[in-house]
Specification:
Largest sheet: 7 strands, mixed
Strand content: 15-25%
Distance between the termini: 20 Å
Shape: globular
Number of strands: 11
Length: 248
Amino acid sequence: MSAPPADLAAALAALAARRPILVASDYDGVLAPLADVPSEASPEPGTAEVLGRLSAVPGVTVALVSGRGLADLRSTSGFSGDLRWIGSHGAEFDGPLAGDLAGRRDELVARLEPLVTGTPGARLEIKPASVAVHVRLVADRPAAAALLEASRAAVDPSLTMKPGKDVFEVAVTDADKGSAVRRLAAEIGAQGVVYLGDDVTDEDVFRVLGADDVGVKVGAGETAAAHRVADPAAVRALLEQLADLLTV
């Protein structure tokens, strides 16, 4: 298990000296390797244990922040314990979506379902506050790209669009991960935040972090985060080091 880069290790050490702090992370591609079938995205070995160590430290709040619906996030991760849960890109904050947005969501389903049905390997995911077109399993890559473009063109441009890796998601609320993390940080009076994410929607968090916070991009790609690690195994190593610093 390799240690985080020196600049990241120094940033974590500075963060660990403050209280209270928020340790927040996306799930897919960060705490769990990406899976072709989302329900099979199992956590990196040892991740549940280190999250437990972190959440047991006084003054430390651990949060899962995901585009998945809360129920899906809980069941797929299998995590338990003293964690905060944010689903549907921030629209579900500790609990189910407030208000009745199902009708607007179902209109999106009606628009996108015929497009997805005509592309072998594509899948339409219906979430509490959004609909997502997945093309990870589409063997014909030009067809996959065409489907994503057709999906974008088929929906009301005033809706909140959340493109990602092999996915195009449309939400019926304007919630995003950045506003959700800021809300939680304010709620607990956080003196520092570390956030780990790998996808386009995680950039909403990286852009709102303060100068003394720690943003960590997982994997390749352009990012507003100041730091980067390679994969979920490296994320676990980072969290282990942070837990060690917090329990000295």
